[in-house]
């Protein structure tokens, strides 16, 4: 089925009563959570709320019915139908389900005329006009088949399809049904085709394009970490630190619980042992639309076919630059590169050239670049010359006096102020950013905004548009390509031209790399821009993030541990706190929390979400948190994690010594 996103969630069968009524699913199809569940009385109310005034009815789609659905437009009528369905279920001759999409009723699926002696039943599918779509129905059907043959032990299913209903025929055919013949004058004298499916000849391939539901897709680490651990050991032999980014290192995870991944899909990742996890953090915040986001992949594939790297600029570079500058109205020119660090380092060089000064003031925020000018200012600074270290000084966020002091101390030597306008945990106080802007202007320094995280998470136009303060230069990366490597330096024309040909000043070597204009990432970027123009990924991330924070914090309340664990920060960029018995941030307790979450199929050093995270993902995560907090509380009561933690605690990524996680 072209375009169907193959992604599956946990598969759940919950027995509800002795009549064997069950809830099946969920599966995710096209980002929507599809479930089958038995109708309950309260559905009448929901149905009457959901019906659209102009078309307030369910239409028969792939089967006829004795019931007059067209008139079932009121809560009363729906209540009657629910009661009817429950009656059918009670006598065991029918198994009624409501098809729900993201929790809302979308239709009905009925396993009718169930004959367990003969092992046969009939299938009817109804779907509301508002929710019509093969992918949703296919998911519902897939869930039903799994149940009917597996749990209900039926051997033969039949479906009557109105003659000429090609989409229904295609759907049932893909599910493995075979056309058996014509039913002349069947049901109200209309003609139908009879299709059937036997349990024994249900070829798996015939339903391979429907969402796959299997134990593999239940988020958990039940398969253990044996293969991941072996691969991790090999990585340590081959790659210093066993990862290409310190933040991805095994020392950032509980010992022997560092999954080595093989693939991702939406919000999910799978590891070498076959475990499935809901992921948070999303490639160090570089993925906002979800892994394997189809439109980006399609754009990339189209670009690939035409070659990726040439001796002269491509048309794509014009289009991508236009896209970028239309998003960021404060910038006049842009230059693309691969890494965020390249962009911030270029901003520093440009600021130094433009001002003739050497000193840089950076805000006390975690990270700006992998290059010497910044690494000299962190704890892990071996190899950075003393002279370089002395050229970068810090000031405090939301503290204008600390910046004033830096300017006063520097003797007019500050070339630029580099900062994130906001972080997940710190919003600028009123007047702060304006104050920074004014101080820069007074002292002739440039203001550089690092939009690496804020770009495409706060707004596609960056924090500068959210807070209304225009920097001289801004640096972008991370989510620009939904994981593909692309970054950008943008800014005022008079500054940017110092790296161009419209200048008589000494030229600045401003971002010039072999792979800078490689077409794949530019195509990915353009597709990301389109996704943000046509949809609202930030709104989705904010809604899901809010639900997640509320769920996590409610779980912490339930267990009485709010002083120790909390989801905090901007909803699109949440982090969690892990404090010890004395309320101090604690690496051992962080490790315990990570360990318990990994055990329950959640992989994340933060709760940074994507627009692909579903309501069901959030529910699973909150349940995992609830269970993890039971262990966490026991450790608090015990006075420490020792009895609960399997290995050594994690340690900060940029520490100066390998200890306490030396291999
Ligand atoms: C705020 C910020 N700026 C710059 C960078 C550097 O980006 P890159 O890792 O792409 O070089 C990072 C990376 O984590 C970052 O978080």
Task: List the keywords.
Aminopeptidase; 3 domains; alpha+beta; seven-stranded mixed beta sheet; binds pyridoxal-5'-phosphate; Aspartate Aminotransferase, domain 1; 20 helices
Brief account:
This protein has 663 residues and is an alpha+beta fold.
How many DSSP helices?
A: 20
Q: What is the number of E strands?
A: 23
Report the CATH superfamily of the largest domain.
Answer: Type I PLP-dependent aspartate aminotransferase-like (Major domain)
> What is the averaged pLDDT score?
85
CATH topology of the largest domain: Aspartate Aminotransferase, domain 2
- Assembly level: single chain
Look at the helices and sheets and give the structural class: alpha+beta
| Sheet with the most strands, sense and barrel status | 10 strands, mixed
Could you characterize the architecture of this molecule?
With about 675 residues, the protein is an alpha+beta fold. It has 3 domains: about 10-210, Gcn5-related N-acetyltransferase (GNAT) (Aminopeptidase); about 220-290 and about 540-640, Alpha-Beta Complex (Aspartate Aminotransferase, domain 1), CATH 3.90.1150; about 295-535, Aspartate Aminotransferase, domain 2. Helix content is about 35%, strand content about 20%. A hairpin with a 4-residue loop joins strand 12 (about 270) and strand 13. Pyridoxal-5'-phosphate binds near residues 284, 339, 450, 453 and 487. Pyridoxal-5'-phosphate binds next to helix 10.
């Amino acid at each position: 089925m072209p375009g169907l996103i193959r992604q599956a969630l946990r598969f759940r069968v919950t027995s509800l009563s002795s009549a064997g009524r069950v809830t099946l699913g969920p599966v995710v199809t096209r980002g929507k959570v599809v479930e089958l569940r038995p109708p309950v009385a309260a559905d009448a109310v929901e149905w009457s709320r959901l019906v659209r005034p102009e078309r307030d009815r369910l239409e028969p789609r792939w089967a006829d019915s004795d019931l007059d659905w067209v008139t079932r437009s009121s809560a009363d009528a729906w209540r009657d139908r629910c009661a009817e369905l429950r009656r059918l279920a009670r006598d065991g001759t029918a198994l009624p389900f409501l098809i729900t999409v993201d929790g809302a009723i979308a239709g009905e699926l009925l396993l009718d005329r169930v004959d367990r002696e003969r092992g046969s039943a009939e299938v009817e599918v109804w779907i509301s006009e508002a929710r019509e779509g093969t992918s949703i129905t296919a998911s519902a059907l897939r869930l039903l088949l799994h149940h009917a043959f597996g749990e209900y032990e039926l051997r033969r299913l039949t479906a009557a399809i109105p003659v000429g209903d090609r989409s229904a025929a295609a759907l049932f055919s893909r599910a493995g049904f075979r056309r058996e013949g014509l039913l002349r004058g069947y049901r109200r004298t209309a003609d139908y085709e009879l299709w059937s499916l036997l349990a024994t000849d249900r070829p798996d391939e015939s339903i391979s394009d429907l969402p796959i539901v299997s134990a593999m897709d239940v988020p958990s680490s039940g398969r253990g970490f044996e293969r991941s651990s072996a691969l991790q050991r090999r990585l340590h032999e081959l790659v210093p630190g066993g990862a290409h980014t310190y933040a991805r290192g095994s020392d950032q995870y509980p010992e022997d619980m560092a999954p080595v991944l093989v693939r991702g899909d939406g919000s999910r990742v799978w590891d070498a042992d076959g475990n499935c996890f809901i992921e948070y953090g999303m490639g160090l915040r570089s993925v906002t639309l979800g892994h394997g986001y189809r439109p980006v992949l399609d754009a990339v594939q189209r670009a690939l076919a035409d070659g990726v790297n040439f001796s002269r600029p491509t048309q794509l570079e014009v289009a991508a630059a236009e896209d970028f500058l239309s998003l960021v109205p404060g910038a006049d020119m842009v230059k693309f590169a691969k890494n965020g660090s390249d962009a911030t380092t270029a901003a520093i060089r440009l600021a130094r050239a433009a001002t003739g000064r050497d000193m840089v003031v950076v805000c006390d925020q975690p990270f700006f670049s992998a290059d010497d000018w910044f690494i000299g200012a962190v704890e892990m600074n071996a190899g950075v010359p003393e002279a370089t270290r002395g050229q970068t000084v810090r000031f405090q966020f939301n503290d204008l006096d600390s910046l004033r002091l830096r300017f006063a101390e520097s003797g007019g030597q500050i070339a630029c102020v580099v900062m994130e306008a906001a972080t997940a945990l710190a919003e600028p106080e009123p007047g702060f950013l304006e104050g920074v802007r004014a101080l820069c202007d007074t002292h002739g320094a440039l203001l550089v905004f690092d939009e690496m995280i804020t770009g495409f998470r706060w707004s596609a136009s960056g924090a500068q548009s959210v807070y209304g303060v225009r920097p001289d230069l801004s640096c972008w990366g991370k989510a620009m390509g939904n994981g593909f490597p692309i970054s950008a330096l943008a800014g005022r024309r008079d500054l940017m031209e110092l790296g161009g040909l419209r200048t008589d000043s000494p030229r600045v070597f401003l971002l010039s790399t072999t792979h800078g204009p490689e077409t794949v990432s530019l195509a990915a970027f353009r597709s990301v821009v389109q996704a943000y123009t046509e949809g609202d990924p930030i709104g989705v991330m904010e809604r899901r993030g809010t639900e997640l924070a509320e769920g996590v914090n409610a779980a912490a309340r339930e267990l009485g541990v709010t002083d120790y664990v909390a989801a905090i920060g901007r909803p699109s960029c949440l982090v969690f706190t892990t404090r010890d018995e004395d309320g101090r941030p604690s690496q051992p307790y962080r490790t315990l929390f990570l360990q318990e979450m990994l055990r329950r199929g959640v992989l994340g050093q933060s709760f940074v979400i994507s627009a692909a995270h579903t309501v069901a993902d959030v529910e699973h995560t909150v349940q995992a948190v609830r269970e993890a907090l039971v262990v966490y509380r026991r450790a608090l009561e015990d006075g420490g994690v020792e009895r609960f933690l399997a290995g050594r605690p994690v340690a900060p990524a940029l520490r100066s010594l390998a200890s306490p996680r030396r291999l």
